[in-house]
Amino acid sequence: MNLVAENEIKAPESSIARRRSLANPSALGYGGFAATLMTLSLSGMGFRSISNQSVFVANLCFLAGVGLLVSAQWEMVRGNTFDYTVLGAFALYYGGYGVLLLPSSGVLESYQGQTADYHNAFGIYLLVWSILNLFFFIASLPTGAPNIVVYGALELSYIFNCIGHFVRADGNILTSMKLMKVGGAFGFVSSLAGFYMLGHELCRDVLPFRFPVYNTSRLASVVKSSEHSN
């Protein structure tokens, strides 16, 4: 009897210890996402008149590509479907975007420069990603205000950049540049929200205070209750 009771007491303690030994992968995910997006957004806004983004390949392929993919796998272990899907998708997106910027990939050369065909293709590429990110935005609504800003601002960034490429393909260069700057500005806002979430994930483990995330999960419960009542 005593042996059984002792085992029943120790088993939960060992499982709790195993859970506590797992680090929080969200911090790396938010950090890699925000840092990579901010560099691209600053360039898109025309900061320091950067036109060649090849140096960003390091962030795109490693910090975001590898870092977010690693974080995604651990979010899967923790059972977080939303975080796993988002981190995994953006890891592959950023890694693929980095490949597009590599001169050795030959993508730009295959279009013989930034032709109308190139900008139309890039516009479609961003259009499809805006559709995918729209689902991420909808799924983020019950998660918290900063997350909503991350995906909401990113959605607008995709849309403006998509339109900018289509307009550039039609030959309206000045209008295209203005649209892409607006897209870069929304991307910058998204990256700031990502850094805010990075602070939230880090500080709650090591500091006595937390960055408030303004939990919006009640909105989902209100919607569900209204649906049941109907």
TrEMBL record:
Pfam families, per database record: Gpr1_Fun34_YaaH (PF01184)
GO cellular component, one term: plasma membrane
Membrane topology: Multi-pass membrane protein
Keyword terms of this UniProt record: Membrane, Transmembrane, Transmembrane helix
MF GO annotations: acetate transmembrane transporter activity
Entry's family note: Belongs to the acetate uptake transporter (AceTr) (TC 2.A.96) family.
Name under which the protein is recorded: Uncharacterized protein
The organism of origin for this protein: Hypocrea atroviridis (strain ATCC 20476 / IMI 206040)
